[in-house]
Amino acid sequence: MAVLLDTGVLFAYFDRSDSWHGRVLELFKREHRGLILPAPVIVEVDHLLGTRLPAAARMTFYRSLSGGSYHVADLPKEKYVRIEELHRHFASLSLGFVDAAVIAISESLGLPRIATTDRRHFAPLATAFRLELLP
Fold first, then answer.
1. In this structure, what CATH number is given to the domain that contains residue 27?
2. S-S: 117 plus which of 8, 62, 78, 80, CB 3.0-4.6 Å?
3. Which DSSP letter does residue 114 get?
């Protein structure tokens, strides 16, 4: 079964000093054919790579996008209202747009597996929506 990728997981994949790096490498090896990248995540990853790692990491990310390493999932237009609902319902979590979009895409695809390093936001969401958080 495929897995949705959140920002922190992709950043950890490129940053060898990240404490999640080893676990993410193992996850990517196991799931390499089913890595789904929500389109809103791309902008956050690009920003983090551009501000925290050498330019080569960013270029490798771009090549992985154009080379088909991920299946990119767009946010369906009708799911934008869902983002507002998630913000309202989980106001205490202070969800950002991207985290809410990952949940909306998960619902849209019927895919409960999310790879994330962001347990603060996603652990309560996992309980509410019966999600499996990886790694």
1. 3.40.50.1010
2. 8
3. E
CA neighbours closer than 13 Å in the CB half-sphere of residue 94: 2
* Tokens 């205490």 sit on residue: 92
Q: What is the pLDDT of residues 45-100, one digit of tens each?
A: 999 999 999 999 999 999 999 999 999 999 999 999 999 999 999 999 999 999 99
Number of independent structural domains in the chain: 1
What angle, 0 to 180 degrees and rounded to 10, lies between the N-to-C axes of helices 119-129 and 97-109? 30
Return d(Cα 83, Cα 132) in angstroms, integer: 20
Place of tokens 């990886």: 134
The two tokens of residue 16 are 């060898």
Which stretches of the chain are assigned E, i.e. beta strand? 3-5, 35-38, 71-73, 113-115, 132-134
User: Distance between CA 113 and CA 18 in Å, rounded?
Assistant: 22
